[in-house]
C-alpha cells in the first residue's frame, strides 16, 4: 500500500454542488475542515461545466497541498490531470475503470460500488485502489439511493486488505462509528460538515467518533 493510499482514512470530505452557495463558500468550509484534521477531500460538483471543474479543482488543490491532504476529483479525469490532483473517483456512468487506470497510472483511483460486491471485485481487478459502498444510511443528498448493508464493508476489507474501503451515504456523528467498526477505512461525509455553522467542530467530533469505531474493529480482529 502506498503512503498516498494510506491517507484515505477516517473522515473523507465530499464537496457539495456549488450553484446554491457559491464556490468561495465551499472553499471556506474545506479550509476549516482541513485545519480540523481532514486528510482527504473529494471534489464533486454536478452543476459545474468542464472549465469550472478544472478551475475549481485547481483551487482546491492549493488548499490540500498546503495541509498535506489528498484531493480526489469526482467524474473528471481531465480535471484531475490539469489540477494535479492525487486521484479520481468514478461512478457507474463516469467511464471505464481500466481506461482511467491507463490514463492515470500513478494517481489514486476510486470507484463507487453501491451495494455490489461483484462490481467492487471487477473494479479492483481493473486497477482500482479504493472502492466505496453505500448508501449506508438514509441520505439527504441522494434520498433515492440504494441501501448497502454494513456486512459489505467487513467482507470487502477481508477480501482486499491492500485496498481502501470507503463508506458513503447519510453518515454523521451519530453513526460514523458504526461504519468504522464494520471495517471501513474511511467514511465519506457531506451534510455532516457543510450543513452546520461550525464545520471545524463537526469535523473534530466526526474524527473522534470514527476513531472509536476503528478501535472497536481492531479489538474485534484481535479477539
How does this model look, in words?
With 223 residues, this protein is an alpha/beta fold. The protein has one domain: Aldolase class I (TIM Barrel, Alpha-Beta Barrel), CATH 3.20.20.70. It has 10 helices and 8 strands. The protein has helices spanning 3-6, 23-35, 50-67, 77-83, 97-103, 117-125, 151-159, 176-182, 191-194, 199-222; strands at 10-14, 40-43, 70-74, 87-90, 108-114, 130-133, 164-167, 186-189. Strands 1-2-3-4-5-6-7-8 form an 8-stranded parallel barrel, surrounded by 8 helices. Strand 4 (87-90), helix 5 and strand 5 form a beta-alpha-beta unit. Helix 2 (23-35) runs parallel beside helix 3 (50-67), helix 3 packs across helix 4 (77-83) and helix 8 (176-182) packs parallel to helix 10 (199-222). The protein starts with a helix and ends with a helix. The mean pLDDT is 95.
Amino acid at each position: 500500500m502506498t503512503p498516498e493510499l494510506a491517507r484515505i482514512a477516517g473522515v473523507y470530505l465530499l464537496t457539495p454542488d456549488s450553484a446554491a452557495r457559491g464556490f468561495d463558500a465551499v472553499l471556506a468550509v474545506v479550509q476549516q475542515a482541513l485545519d480540523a484534521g481532514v486528510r482527504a477531500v473529494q471534489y464533486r460538483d454536478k452543476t459545474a461545466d468542464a472549465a469550472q471543474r478544472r478551475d475549481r479543482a485547481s483551487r482546491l488543490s492549493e488548499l490540500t497541498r498546503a495541509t498535506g491532504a489528498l484531493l480526489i476529483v469526482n467524474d473528471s479525469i481531465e480535471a484531475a490531470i490539469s489540477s494535479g490532483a492525487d486521484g479520481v473517483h468514478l461512478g457507474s456512468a463516469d467511464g471505464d475503470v481500466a481506461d482511467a487506470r491507463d490514463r492515470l497510472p500513478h494517481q489514486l483511483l476510486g470507484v463507487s460500488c453501491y451495494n455490489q460486491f461483484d462490481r467492487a471485485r471487477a473494479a479492483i481487478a481493473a486497477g482500482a485502489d479504493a472502492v466505496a459502498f453505500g448508501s449506508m444510511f438514509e441520505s439527504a443528498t441522494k434520498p433515492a439511493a440504494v441501501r448497502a448493508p454494513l456486512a459489505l464493508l467487513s467482507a470487502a476489507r477481508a477480501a482486499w486488505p491492500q485496498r481502501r474501503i470507503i463508506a458513503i451515504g447519510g453518515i454523521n456523528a451519530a453513526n460514523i462509528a458504526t461504519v468504522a467498526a464494520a471495517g471501513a477505512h474511511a467514511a465519506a461525509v457531506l451534510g455532516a460538515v457543510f450543513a452546520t455553522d461550525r464545520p471545524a467542530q463537526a469535523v473534530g467530533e466526526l474524527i473522534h467518533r470514527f476513531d472509536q469505531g476503528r478501535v472497536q474493529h481492531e479489538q474485534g480482529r484481535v479477539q
